[in-house]
Design goal:
Elements (H helix, E strand, L loop, with lengths): L7 E7 L6 H9 L6 E8 L5 H7 L5 E6 L5 H11 L4 E4 L5 E2 L3 H11 L5 E10 L4 E5 L1 H4 L18 E3 H7 L10 H12 L3 E12 L5 H5 L3 H18 L4 H26 L1
Parallel strand pairs: 1-2, 1-4, 2-3, 6-9
Antiparallel strand pairs: 4-8, 5-9, 6-7, 6-8
Helix pairs in contact: 9-10
């Protein structure tokens, strides 16, 4: 089935997710909403991910194969350039969408004309602890200001308009680890964050090939990006006295972590 003018483009960046990839793609193919394209970009995988992607026989799945890993942020921005839909959704290659996810989110956009960004609740599969956790994003951030202090939004649960991408210019290129969180904050600065009160995605967490686990050894990058983000929040948002206190405390903690790592490197 070929889709010349898809209403929704789904981005799936892929790196060494052979254990999850087929089921992840199938969760999109099985969607009750049919007018979509999947922009699937293999970001230099060295496992069987390329073979699995190549075996998918659905013309709505647009396949791209990068010769080497260009980093998550660059791969996301590369994928955005290939999207034809007016709406863009994320489905990471180790996560699974509920069969009615696209339908529910598309209908929400239809009913809410001012909505530019939408996320949902999600189920978290913790592979190491072998437990499932239902994460109620809707109630966790009823007060949207909480997003200034912690990221409650699962990337694979989001859908946003092409229009807002043009305003922001894509994911921030100077973030390797928390590009999604920084992206949400930049959206929140200019538009409202909407959350649909439904569990629409299953997130696989704490397995050996998650992006988080691959970057955990780069602790300096993580804490340094935290510092950059917190300073950016302080400069760009009008904060109450209590919010300033919280931000300054977080800046202090992350500065200490960066300092400890630097001293460790030099000792």
């Amino acid at each position: 089935m070929k889709n010349v003018n898809p209403k929704i483009s789904i981005i799936m960046t892929i790196y060494n997710h052979e254990k999850f990839l087929k089921k992840s793609i199938q969760s999109i193919i099985n969607q009750s909403f049919r007018n979509w394209e999947l922009v699937a970009v293999d970001n230099g995988s060295n496992d069987n991910s390329r073979k699995i992607l190549n075996s998918i026989n659905d013309k709505r799945v647009k396949k791209f194969y990068l010769k080497k890993n260009i980093g998550r942020t660059n791969c996301l921005n590369f994928s955005l350039e290939k999207c034809k839909g007016k709406l863009v959704a994320i489905n990471d290659s180790d996560d699974f969408s509920d069969k009615d996810r696209l339908k529910n989110q598309f209908n929400y956009f239809k009913k809410n004309n001012k909505c530019q960004f939408l996320a949902s609740n999600y189920t978290l599969n913790d592979k190491k602890r072998k437990i499932k956790i239902r994460t109620d994003t809707f109630n966790l951030i009823k007060n949207r200001r909480k997003i200034l202090f912690e990221n409650y939004i699962a990337h694979s649960s989001v859908m946003y308009t092409k229009k807002i991408i043009k305003k922001l210019g894509g994911y921030p290129k100077n973030y390797k680890y928390s590009q999604d969180y920084m992206f949400y904050l930049k959206i929140y600065l200019i538009n409202e964050i909407h959350i649909i009160n439904k569990y629409l995605v299953e997130i696989n967490f704490n397995h050996e090939n998650t992006e988080t686990n691959r970057l955990m050894h780069k602790n300096f990058t993580i804490f340094y990006e935290n510092l950059k983000r917190l300073r950016w929040i302080k400069q760009n948002f009008f904060l109450s006295s209590l919010e300033k206190l919280k931000i300054n405390y977080k800046i202090f903690l992350n500065y200490l972590k960066v300092l400890q790592i630097k001293i460790g490197f030099n000792s």
